[in-house]
Amino acid sequence: MAGKRIDVLSDTHGRLSNEVLDALDGCDLIVHAGDITSDEDFVTLGALAPLRLCLGNNDWAGEYGPEATRKVRFEYEGLQFCVCHYRQDLTGERFDVGVFGHTHVPERDTLGNGALVMNPGSPTFPRSSSGPTMGRIYVEDGRVLSSEIIKLGDGEDRGWGRSFFAGW
Fold first, then answer.
1. What is the pTM assigned to this prediction?
2. Cα–Cα distances in Å, from 23 out to 9, 33, 106, 123, 150?
């Protein structure tokens, strides 16, 4: 598919599986909607692609740089993005793409004004029958070309990437 590929994560909680790292290969931008909870994962994701990250309710101890705040707004490929951990924090905001997390349940919706709203779920601690998930969005020239929730395997522990913390 033409356009720029944005991979969307949330609620990784210090565990990036090898499957997630493989799925991110080749993306143009990573958006993380909070609860990364790992300085090492922050570095790992930032080495794969440019990373835009908001803080979640469990991100109080990390060092993610001054741009990581509770609500992150930015422009990418002519679209206005708003990223926050809680869906209710998107209320009243003007955006073309709104991303949130916290529930660990994937969700994708188009608002009446045409804005895309996405919760990618969680690739590590899912709370729905969908199992581990992430999101993917293709954009070009100020348009969302497509968006999807990507199901990652069957939820079995297939080995953790570089940031596995055995005592978690």
1. 0.90
2. 11, 17, 17, 11, 9
